[in-house]
Amino acid sequence: MSIFNFGRHSIPFADVHDINVEYRYHDSEIYVDLELNGGVQVSLNLPDSLKFMELFIAKIREEKNITE
Question: What pTM was computed for the model?
Answer without folding.
Answer: 0.86
